Structure formats: structure tokens, C-alpha cells
Amino acid sequence: MPGTKHSQGPCELSAGAYGTPLDSVLYSAMDPTTDNRSSGRSRAGRRFALVLLCFAFIGASGESGEAPAVIVPCSGAVPEPRYSDAGAPPNVRTWTNGRLTEAPALGACTGWTDLNYRTLVAVAGTFRAAGGHLALLSRFGSVSSLLLLRYWSTTDQAWLPLVTAATPLTGEVAGQPRADFTAAELAGGQNFYMSQRDNRSASDVVYRMRVRESRVDRIVLETENVTAVRWWALTLFKPGALRTVYFLNQRSPDTWSYYALTKITDGSWLVAGHEKSYVNRVVALFRHLAGVPTDAEPPAAP
User: Fold this and answer.
1) Eight-state DSSP code of residue 80
2) Closest by CA position to 44, among listed 26, 28, 56, 32
3) How far is CA 87 from its chain centroid?
4) What is the mean pLDDT of the chain?
5) How far is the C-alpha of 155 from the C-alpha of 166, rounded, in Å?
6) Cα angle at 34 between 33 and 40, to 5 degrees?
7) Domain 28-290: which topology?
């Protein structure tokens, strides 16, 4: 894929949708269901060995250091990476271990005060969508439809469900399940909360979603995790470590440009070095919002 940088590590991270690229982390090669011939003790030993193997690959892939090429679409700026054409795959780039430059302008545009990152993922594309900006807000608010997402698993070499549970909530703390968020609700600029569970984890993560701009020709929406992401007893990400900003701009009555920037900070060493897996997940969400099949061939990063 043009503009895509990714790794080819041996361990695939699981991830959800609005927490892209990571909701929670589990390595598919460490799933005990993949080998029914061995005892629980030997499977556990292989899991631990693979953890050490994954650790050896950390820092071996992706661009590192500052990311001066990142330009978000604010104040009429032409973004970097550039938008792909309508109907074409989005352009995707990833960086690892650095700091975003051009602060404070970039910070003001994204709403981020901390511009350091462990992993940074940028997605830029164009798609056709009828119904105007309210129809697009409805797609973001349709949390239950995330269950339809499929992504390409680099470990299984197959299309798999990305999210196994997705629930809109009435609030952040002790929130109860509710109906999907409406476009009118989101346009009001309030905080909304949802829980997600991906296809390889056993616990939910709560995310906050807020529309920062809602105009007939522009949408800016942000998400972040408000509860920690855990794997067994290990905290992989603290609250607020996974943040994404989406910029959608109308280019013609039925054509929209899409730019998403995801910043991952304060992650455990277990979650580094899996850019190829990140790419497949962010592209799945782009396809979902663009209204095209999420499992369309070819995969973004086979």
C-alpha cells in the first residue's frame, strides 16, 4: 500500500475499533486453543517463551524519532500523509518512539498537550457518502455496528471479527447499556462513553468519544480510553494512553476526505513493534466508516 510503513514481527496484537489500533492486547500465537495436543503446563511454557521472543523484536521496525512529516488538516493545511483518491485504499504511515513537532500549533489542532508517543499511526483517504455530515456522525454513533467489522489477521492469514462486544453506555462510571448514539446527540459536543472487547481478549475497555467540531462541511471527533487496558494482571496502557483524532472534510456534496491520527503512549514493552497489525485495524475502521466491506480483498498489510 502506498505510504504504508509496517513491521513483520512474529506476534500479532489484538485490537478493537475506536481504540485503534489497540483496545487490549493478546498474542494469537499464545492462544491455548491453537494446540490441543499439549498439556496446560507446556502451553504456558510456550506462551512465556513467545513473550520473550516478542521482546527481542521490540524497536526493530518502523520509523523512529521525530515525525516532522505529520501534517493534520487544520487551517487549510494539506495533510501528510496525503489523501488517497476516492475508491482507493487509504494512505497509512506509522512511527515509533518520538515526539510530534510543530508544537504548539499541532497540539492546538489535535487537543493534545503531550506530544510524545510510543507509536503514531496516520490514515488519510477519501470516500463517497450521501446524507451529509449527520449521516457520518450516525456512523460514528452506531457503536453496535462495530460487531460487523472484520480485519485481516497476519497470524491466522484470514479475515476475522475485530470486535466481539460493543456497548454504548449511559456514563463513564457504572454506565448502563443504552441505544446507539444519535447524530443529534453527538453534534452537541458532550462526552459519550462505550465499552469494547476485541476478538482475542476477555475484558472490556471503556472509551470516551466527543465531537469537537460539527459543521455541514467538517467533523472533528476524538476518542480515548478512560479505563486501563490490561492483559491478565499486567497493565498495558494507563487511562488516556490511547488517543485518536478524526478529521472529516467535505470535498463535494457526496465526497469526504478522512484523516485519523492515533497516538499511543505509556505502553508496556509487550505492545511495541506490531505496526503491520495496526495498519489492518485502522484500515478496517476506515472501510467501515466509508461504507465499504471491511473484508474486501486485498488486505492492507498481508
Assistant:
1) B
2) 32
3) 21
4) 79
5) 24
6) 60
7) Alpha-D-Glucose-1,6-Bisphosphate; Chain A, domain 4 (3.30.530)
